[in-house]
TrEMBL record:
Family, similarity comment: Belongs to the PpiD chaperone family.
Entry-linked Pfam families: Rotamase_2 (PF13145), SurA_N_3 (PF13624)
Topology of the protein relative to the lipid bilayer: Single-pass type II membrane protein
Protein name: Peptidylprolyl isomerase
GO cellular component: plasma membrane
Superkingdom of this protein's organism: Bacteria
Compartments, record wording: Cell membrane
Keywords: Cell membrane, Chaperone, Isomerase, Membrane, Transmembrane, Transmembrane helix
Domain PpiC positions: 243-362
Species the sequence originates in: Paracoccus shanxieyensis
Gene Ontology MF term list: peptidyl-prolyl cis-trans isomerase activity
SUPFAM superfamilies for this protein: FKBP-like, Triger factor/SurA peptide-binding domain-like
């Protein structure tokens, strides 16, 4: 890692670990305004390093979510703490490496620099000038960078030594494997309202009113914001926009490749060093010894690596005739390519496209009209804003401009109609935040439209009077009462089902034999009589944990694996439906199967990674506690201010 914080290389290697500063034993300086934001032992962390770390974390967040963050937003969600924690972790490892005398030679550092793509020139080789220029742009001096690389390697040596012996215990892995691969035989059935012996009694008004009050949250009208808005979208102006035929023909000609396409094929290409090697590979495919994907894997490639996509006969050059001679998916070749002899896997035939201008005219007209309408709206946006700034009301905009006036009773849980203004996320965002008396502003929508809005009134959340929702209350009460009675019936049938498969009550023949012999009796004891067995429902054999039963909620399967012993029956309430599940038999996992070994490896890797992460966390915390970690909050605040 690095003498003054943390490098990009180590962030990638330790990306799994994101620790907060809590528990690190970090204390604040009483003040100061130095350039260093903190230190662990003798290793200091500078403000520029913190700024680079924070930018890197923000860029990583953007890459994962597609959302740009401002510095304030980054601090709100704790990204600055992530950057700080990584810097302090790196500094703790560097301090320990220094204490132990762990380092690497110049050769290792030089190899890393020379092999880095960031410093390669146009010929793909290390470029000394590019190296100096890149570091200069990042504000890093060459000695500092080379020291950082040296410490990266030293920290990795320390990290590998710390975690080398950490592996998942075999007993834990086998226990988890047995749990995952266990299967069960069950019977299941669902109880519906038809199973009730009597219909649900008619509720009186007193019962319904009590239910209305007890479940007020179900019958409460949400806060409603009464909003007036004015808006215009390209679709509103589409029919009024004039588009001449020449413009449509020009548009058609500019996209002729889209409307006029020759026959194409979906093709993958695997290149070989010699004609003989390509011919031998084709012979192996013909003998069904391997398929095309396996051939690629033998070369260390995947199908994605060799995919050519959609290609025409002309695109394939000299190989075009061989590939296009195939009338169904298959392998052609050997045939020449610009890289050498190759085999071509043809996976699909795409028919030629021939759409005339007349056939495309209507679609082109809509597209051109919408595009022109967007430009018109964009050109008028400034005048709309000027009218609002001059005191024009929304009604004035609707009268004097193409904007249309509307009103809406808007709530957070009402998405509105797909073609209405509330379908736009921009409108929903501003509708939720606008206040009475706010000055109207013009906002842009993703399709090129614009809108402005005014909050007229807010109706607070309130319980809807019973008289207005009596039918809803009755329906809700009936559903609940039916569900309650079904659960009670299910419990009765559960007891009956378990009794039917339990040993019969009374003395067994073995128990009565000595008594009978004592009084000279010779007759045998009567066989026990089991109660009549109720219908247990549908049978499922070898149900896997996480398996699937058509039409049954997944929660039923998961709870079926919580039944302790064969013969037991469980009442399962899932998705407001009632099920009876009887466990018939438990099948232990087949840990010798090929699939089991793959799962075992996955469990071992996952548990080992988790253990290593925990060990690494405790280790770095211990290092910081021993060396002492300090943070200069004044310097941190100053660095944050500079990021604005």
């Amino acid at each position: 890692m690095r003498g003054k914080g943390k490098s990009t290389i180590v962030w990638l290697l330790m990306g799994m670990l994101v620790l907060g500063l809590g528990g690190f034993g970090v204390t604040n300086f009483s003040g100061g305004s130095g350039a260093d934001i903190g230190a662990v032992g003798d290793v200091e962390i500078s403000a520029p390093e913190y700024a680079r770390a924070l930018r890197s974390e923000m860029q990583d967040f953007t890459a994962r979510t597609g959302r740009q963050l401002s510095p304030d937003e980054a601090r709100t969600i704790g990204i600055d703490q992530m950057a700080m924690s990584r810097l302090f972790t790196a500094a703790a490892l560097e301090d320990e490496a220094n204490r132990l005398g762990i380092s690497v030679g110049d050769k290792v550092v030089g190899e890393q620099i020379v092999s880095s793509p960031a410093f390669a020139g146009l010929d793909g080789k290390f470029d000394r000038a590019r190296y100096a220029d890149t570091l200069n742009r990042e504000g890093i001096r060459e000695p500092q960078f080379e020291h950082d690389l040296r410490m990266d390697e030293a920290r990795m040596i320390l990290q590998r030594a710390t975690l080398a012996a950490v592996t998942a215990p075999a007993a834990v892995t086998e226990h988890a494997l047995g749990w995952i691969l266990e299967t069960r035989d069950i019977h299941w059935r669902e109880l519906t309202a038809d199973a009730l012996t009597a219909p649900i009694a008619e509720p009186d008004d007193a019962t319904l009113q009590a239910w209305h009050q007890a479940n007020a949250d179900r019958f409460t009208r949400p806060e409603t914001r009464k909003i007036t808005y004015a808006w215009v979208t390209p679709e509103m102006l589409e029919n009024s926009v004039q588009v001449d035929d020449q413009a449509l023909r020009d548009l058609y000609d500019s996209r002729k490749d889209e409307f006029q396409q020759p026959e194409r094929r979906m093709v993958e290409r695997l290149v070989f060093p010699t004609d003989a090697a390509a011919a031998e590979a084709k012979a192996r495919i013909d003998r069904v010894e391997v398929n095309f994907e396996q051939l690629a894997a033998e070369r260390g490639l995947t199908l994605a690596d060799i995919d050519l996509g959609e290609v025409s006969q002309a695109d394939l050059g000299a190989a075009g005739d061989a590939v296009f001679a195939l009338d169904q998916p298959g392998v052609a070749g050997p045939a020449p390519s610009n890289l050498g002899p190759a085999l071509y896997s043809m996976n699909a035939i795409l028919e030629p496209v021939n759409v005339s201008f007349e056939d495309a005219r209507d679609d082109l007209r809509v597209e051109a009209a919408l595009d022109r309408a967007r430009r018109q709206i964009d050109e008028q946006t400034a005048s709309f804003s000027d009218m609002l700034a001059g005191g024009s009301a929304l009604e004035d905009l609707a009268r004097d401009t193409p904007m249309e006036l509307g009103t809406i009773d808007w709530t957070n849980d009402n998405p509105g109609t797909p073609d209405g203004i509330s379908a736009y996320p921009e409108f929903r965002q501003h509708a939720a935040s606008v206040h009475e008396g706010d000055f109207p502003e013009l906002f842009t929508m993703e399709d090129g439209g614009v809108f402005t809005l005014r909050l007229d009134a807010i109706e607070p959340a309130a319980l809807i009077p019973f008289e207005e929702v009596r039918d809803r209350v009755e329906q809700d009460w009936r559903q609940n009462e039916t569900h309650r009675q079904l659960l009670a019936l299910a419990e009765e049938q559960r007891v009956a089902t378990e009794a039917a498969v339990a040993p019969a009550l009374g003395p067994t023949p073995a128990a009565t034999a000595p008594v009978a012999q004592a009084v000279g009796a010779t007759q045998q004891a009567p066989a026990p009589v089991a109660p009549a067995s109720p219908d247990k429902g549908a049978e499922v054999k070898a149900l896997a944990r996480g398996g699937f039963i058509q039409g049954v909620p997944q929660d039923v399967i998961s709870q079926a694996f919580q039944i302790a012993e064969p013969g037991e029956t469980a009442v399962i309430d899932a998705d407001n439906r009632v099920f009876l599940v009887t466990l018939d038999q438990i099948h232990a996992a087949d840990t010798k199967a090929e699939q089991a070994q793959q799962i075992r490896d996955g469990i071992t890797n996952s548990q080992s990674d988790s253990l290593r992460q925990d060990v690494f966390e405790y280790y770095t915390r211990a290092l910081q506690a021993r060396a002492g970690a300090t943070v200069n909050q004044t310097a941190v605040d100053a660095a944050n201010a500079q990021m604005q």
